[in-house]
Structures are given as C-alpha cells and as structure tokens.
Amino acid sequence: MFELLPFILPVNPTIFYSQNNIQNSEIITQENNILRQLPGELNKIPVFNSNSPELVLGEGILLSTFPKDNKTHPEAHLNFGFQGRFDIFAHHVAKRSTEDDQRTLYLGIIIHNPTSETVTIKTFEGASYLSQPDAPFITLPSKVEGSNTYAGPGSRVMGDILQKKRQEIFPPEITLPAGESKMLLNLPIPVQTLTPPINGRSTYMRLYSSGLVYVASLAMYQDGENNPPSLEQWQEVLKNQPLSSPRDLAPTPPEAEGKRIYGRVAGVSQGDLWKTDLTDSPSSPILSIPNSGEAFSYPLSTLIGGTLGINQIQTAPMLARYPDTAYSAHGNYGVQYSLTLPLFNPHNQNKTVNIAISTPIKQDTLGVKFFNPLPTQTFFRGLVQVKYNDENNIPRLRYFHLVQKRGEKGENLVTITMSPQSQNLVSVDFLYPPDATPPQILTVTTE
C-alpha cells in the first residue's frame, strides 16, 4: 500500500543556486563514469510555457501572447502568434488566501483567431490533472514497473503524453471562425475541502493550427467549483487585467556570478523534443559498450551551474518572456527526450550491459557524485519508456515510474546479455516532468 502524503507546495530546488551546497555531514560517493555530451539538439517547436507565478494568489493574466493593442495593460501581452505545430504547458498552484476565503480559483486558457479565415485546431495529445484528487503525491519506491503509476499531477500528465493519450475534455479538433475566441481549458483548482487548503493543476497539449492564433492563460476567482467563468468574463480579464501578482522572484542574469536565482518560466520557449542516436561518433552507426567494470554517461537537462563539467547547456531558449521571469526554460518541463542506443559488443565474450537513469549531485565541475545516505528532497518523479529485444530476440516495451532523491543513483532499467559482435537497439523515452530538478544522467554500464 502506497503512503498518501498531504499536498504541500513543491519546492523547485533549481530556483536557488545556493541549494547546490553540500553539508559537511553528508557522505559523497564519486563514480568514475566517462561523461559525454548529448548529441543532437532541441527541435524548433514553440511552447506556450505558463509556470509563473507558480503559486497564484491573485486574479489576472498568467501569460498572454496576444498583441498589446487595445489592452489596458499592454506590458502583460507578448505579441507572439502560433501557427502549425505548437504545444501548451501550464503548471500552477492555488492556495486559500485567508481562513474564511471560500472562493475557487479557475484556470482558463483562451485561443483567438485574428485572421479573416476560419482556423482549425487539432489536438494530438492532451492531459490536465489536479494534485487532489486526480494525482496525489504518494510515497513510491524508487522504481515501479507499469504505465499507470504516478505521483503528483506533473508526473501523471507527462506519463499520459508519453503514451500519446488525449483526455476527453480536449476535443480532437476545434473550428475557430474568423475573429473569434474559444476556451481550450476552463477548469478549477479547488482547495476548500483540503487540509492543508492547497492544490495544483498541471496541463499539457500538443496542437496544430491551420492559421495564426494567439493564446493566453488567465486566473479568476469564482464562488464554488462548479461555476466556470463564461467566455465573456475571460475576455474581460484578458482585455483589462494586469499580470497576476504577487510575482515570483526575479531571475539572476545568465552572466552573473555567485548565488543564482533561475526564476520560473512565463513566455514562449523553443523546443519540445530532443531526439537523437547515441553513437560512438557522428559518423558511426553503433554505440560500443564499455569494457567490463566501466561506464559512460550522458547528462540530461543540463543548465547554467549544472553541466556536470561537459559544458553543454540543454535548456530550451525563450522566444518571448516577461522581464521578471526565467531567461530560459530551466528544467525543460514537458520536453521529450527520445534517445536511441544502437548497442554493439565488440568483445569476444558475452557481456552483460545495464542502462539506468540517475540524479547526481548538481555541479558545474567534471564528474558524477551521489549521496549516501540520501537526503529527503525528491528531485525526479516521472514515467520512462524503454524498448529493446530480450535474450530471445523478442521485442519488449516496458514502462517504469522513477522517484529519485537528490544525489540518488538509479536502479537499472534494462539488463541485456550480449553475445560477441552482436547488436541490440535500445530506446529510452520520457517527458521531463514538472517539479523535477535537473540534471539527470543516462548511464551505460558493462558488468
């Protein structure tokens, strides 16, 4: 039986560089892994990325890519249009402001067609979950096999998208007449019956628009959780309200030294997929396994101050942002890593190969370090998909839900025995989940 934990506002340790500090009482083990830069790059798909303020305590605009014209607060609008493939990500938390506050916060995502032609919006995948009751934070083992395990709304949403699911609340197609607007999302984040009175909602959609559209995420209080605002009420917020406040901490400029505040994201980030083959070299079709007792690792979701010494920043850049929000999409929430490993055993003996994902201690110097014993902070919780052929050459598709503490060495996801000169194609896919903290590593080890 899994333990149900009370919902508390998840702390994102990436927001402070100083959380990288290591206490004298903590024991550190160091691995002699060879670290390799991750080949490839993020694609160019724009992502409507609404995560600031994470804790929403006031009505108003969370993120608007609408034009500034005819708006009471033009500074709240980024004037960025979407056309073709794009994604929408929203991750926000509601909390009762006072003991006698009985209002319910609603999250609205509005889409507008500014053109003179009808626009069609297709939804490929889409999911939206509350922490309570949809996806409570529960205590799970470090590794659980199965595709329906989750802990928290970010974990559940990204697991759904990884499996190409679309909730019924998201129609497969929306027709948007010229000059009109519609709500893509109009859902509550209820807190009144909860102890403590705090709740969160994560949402992700993969979309295609046949023409130019603008998008905004908005916050509004209503009486009761079965009283969604009308389109007209949302349009009034969009036109006349300022950015929701209080705001999150403003970020430290990327070039600054010392303590770093990464900030939270509110804008349009670029990239929703890092798809690549891990091979010996750009011109090689194979990935030679390590010698017995050795390992090599590929850092994942690296960022300023946390490259593990490989000098590679994987963070999605921002195409548009508010001045007091993150300079980059630190953590790459919602980005899918799709990694293919064409393993090859060049040795003259059978070799047993293990593949694992771990969460090493965040550092900028070269190396991989882990804690023992582990601290209490959870730095990764999400679903991972692996494909490979087993020892009988039968294709296997498996899902594992991982929960890893800060500085935790992960358990093996795949163990394969390879005969001399044989090959085995392994693929690893996951969407980087909200409330996780980078970096992670993908490690190949030969016993």
Describe the structure.
With 447 residues, the protein is mainly β. The protein has two domains: 23-41 and 274-446, no CATH class; 53-141 and 151-240, no CATH class. Helix content is 4%, strand content 43%. It has two helices and 28 strands. The chain has helices spanning 153-162, 231-240; strands at residues 3-4, 28-31, 34-35, 46-50, 55-56, 60-64, 82-95, 103-112, 119-130, 138-139, 143-145, 173-176, 181-189, 198-223, 266-270, 273-277, 287-288, 295-300, 316-321, 328-329, 336-344, 351-358, 368-371, 378-389, 395-405, 412-418, 423-431, 440-446. The strands form five sheets. Strands 4, 5, 6, 7, 8, 9, 12, 13, 14, 15, 19 and 20 form a twelve-stranded mixed sheet that branches. Strands 11, 16, 17, 21, 24, 25 and 27 form a seven-stranded mixed sheet that branches. A five-stranded mixed sheet has the order 3-18-28-22-26, with no helix packed on it. β19 (316-321) and β20 (328-329) form a beta hairpin. The longest helix is centred in the middle third of the chain and has 10 residues, at 153-162. The protein starts with a strand and ends with a strand.
Structure summarized in a few sentences:
The chain is 4% helix and 43% strand. The chain is mainly beta and 447 residues long.
